Amino acid sequence: MVRVLPVAAITVRICALKLLAWMYARKDSVFYRWCVILLLSGAMAFSLIDRFALSLLFEPIKQDLGVSDTQLGLLHGVAFGLFYAAMGIPLGRLVDRWSRKWVIIWGICVWSIATAACGFARSFLALLLARIGVGAGEAALAPAGYSMISDITPKTQLASAISVFQMGSLLGAGLAFLAGGAVYQAMTALSFTETHFLAGFSAWQLTFIVVALPGIFFILAFMLVSEPERRINIDTDNVEINEQNDEGLLQHLKENVAYYSALFLGAASVVAISYAFVSWAPTVLTRVFSLEVGKAGIFLGLIFVTTAPLGVLCGGLLADFWTGKGKKAAFPNVLLLAAVAALPVMLGCFFVNSAFQFSLIIGITQFTTGLAIGVGPATIQISAPAHLRGQMSAIYVFAVNLIGLGVGPIVIGVLSDRLFTGNSGLLMSLSGYTLTMCILGVVCLYCFRRIFIARALVDS
User: Fold this and answer.
1) 128-139 burial by CB neighbour count: b if 16+ within 10 A, else e?
2) Domains in the chain: ranges and CATH
3) Which end of the chain is less congested by CB atoms within 10 angstroms, N or C?
4) How remote is the C-alpha of 47 from its chain's centroid?
């Protein structure tokens, strides 16, 4: 047995080296491209499991640590969302200057360790600090992923490719509830002797430790990916390098302030609706409609892994279809469609009186808002100069998550604690917030569509 182990280890290393050589030799193939995109999507799904497993565990954490809804909103909002958004900007700058592959690998290391640290937290402050680490680590993935995909994917397939990448986020949200609920139930069923090293841990703490483990696989997998060459923006009509490549970040933003303001605020408002339901829907089901934590996780997980990814995929395909038909406003059309389609659903949220009706609202909402989730970052890739894509993607991520994760969860928590009291107060808080964001999204994305069309006419 002792002799077999070294032989097995050497065999595994040889196979890994052969796989690495095979992937590198085919790095320009369609198969390799989609392997990288799917790996990025898988990493995005894993990051969302670590991010949103907290939502499912709100009630047991509240009981163990004695925290309020406002403090729970801080864990999801300021602790995670603000640092996730803020760290994205310097990491976006790093993405434009260093290996994107290694930015992702180090990001996975940080957020996996921080997620496991949540399981060792014994106080609200310790959990808050661990959540900051999760946010800081996860901030590396999106700008690096967008930049890599834009360099390995033809422009006519860009919206679909980035939508597949973004599908991971919504699959991850669903898996956070499915896997998180299953793990939590399994951890609840475990019993340890007083001398066992896990004896002092609650089920919610063990859940955090378990969901952090897949990080090891993704770190090893990304080591097999080769860093793609960076493309420069080429004007296909004149075959000249686009003059915007010489612009600095601030100059580019200054010259396009209305364009990016309308895009960032509009897309952030739509995504904020989705984040609000992911953050608070489990608590609504357990508190308002009296579902058990495990059952609520399975219930929501099935909804999120079906409706949300379908919406993201349809949004990307629709944008690429309209682009192929020569529609210049294909991307802003899909963004505006997402906001307008969600509006009547948000109005209906005020009138739900059962878990089934609330689940139906969630499913439709995740599909409609999902239309915009992949197209938003894809719009950045076709708008920004090549050497600024990482930083512009990071600013987009900053805007979306500052509103969607940094502000949204805590606003809903404060409204529930201070304005809409009682068990149904949380549902009213969620409904009022999402309706407000939907109206804001419609207005901003309508303005963005008009600016986009005017800019396209000037460029032509």
Assistant:
1) bebbbbbbbbbb
2) 34-229+248-459 (1.20.1250.20)
3) N
4) 8
Q: What is the mean pLDDT of residues 438-451?
A: 94
Residues 274-330 pLDDT 10s = 888 888 888 888 888 877 777 777 778 888 888 888 888 888 889 888 888 878 788
Separation CA 280–CA 289 (nearest Å): 13
pTM: 0.70
Which H, E and C letters describe the chain, residue by residue? Answer: CCCHHHHHHHHHHHHHHHHHHHHHHCCCCHHHHHHHHHHHHHHHHHHHHHHHHHHHCHHHHHHHHCCCHHHHHHHHHHHHHHHHHHHHHHHHHHHCCCCHHHHHHHHHHHHHHHHHHHCCCCCHHHHHHHHHHHHHHHCCHHHHHHHHHHHHCCHHHHHHHHHHHHHHHHHHHHHHHHHHHHHHHHHHHCCCCCCCCCCCCCHHHHHHHHHCCCHHHHHHHHCCCCCCCCCCCEECCCCEECHHHHCCHHHHHHHCHHHHHHHHHHHHHHHHHHHHHHHHHHHHHHHHCCCCHHHHHHHHHHHHCCHHHHHHHHHHHHHHHHHHCCCCCHHHHHHHHHHHHHHHHHHHHHHCCCHHHHHHHHHHHHHHHHHHHHHHHHHHHHHCCHHHHHHHHHHHHHHHHHHHHHHHHHHHHHHHHHCCCCCCHHHHHHHHHHHHHHHHHHHHHHHHHHHHHHHHHHHC
pLDDT digits (tens, 9 = 90+) for 216-251: 899 998 988 888 877 655 433 333 334 444 457 788
d(CA 438, CA 364): 14
HSE-CB of 424 using CA atoms within 13 angstroms: 8
